[in-house]
Predict the 3D structure of the following.
Amino acid sequence: MNKKIVIAIILMLATVGYLISASFVNNKISYLSINDLKASPSSFIGKEIKITGKVLNDKLEEKLTSEGKVYKFKIKDKLIKKDPAKITILYTGVLPDSFQKDADVVCTGELNKNGEFVASSIISKCPSKYESQGDEHPDEIKIKNTDKK
């Protein structure tokens, strides 16, 4: 092969490799628990992060602004059962259809100076019709023997 063609191919491969690696580095968003966020909030102000939690049964506030509807609600850390950390979420946009009280949500956004999380996107977990309704595990349900001998 011609030396110029080989050099051109190597340069193109190097450029593509650089672009792929740069896109991964720039799109890295930290995933934090609410407890981690509350432990050192000043280090996360203005940085894009993701948090996950459960929507509290408190009221959902709506406010109409020039930018659209702004929703204000609280979520709690779903991994901590006793006295979980809570945070206020501010979101401008349309809430997901599956958004409801006690729903699991993933919020992407930034922490503001007031300690509120300004979400740019919210993903709500769809409730499952297959989840157990009680404390009893399906394997523990007694099945009546209907075999006739």
User: Anything to note?
Assistant: The CA atoms of residues 7 and 74 lie 57 Å apart. Helices lie at 3-26, 34-39. The beta strands are 30-32, 49-55, 61-65, 68-76, 86-92, 104-111, 117-124. The longest strand covers residues 68-76.
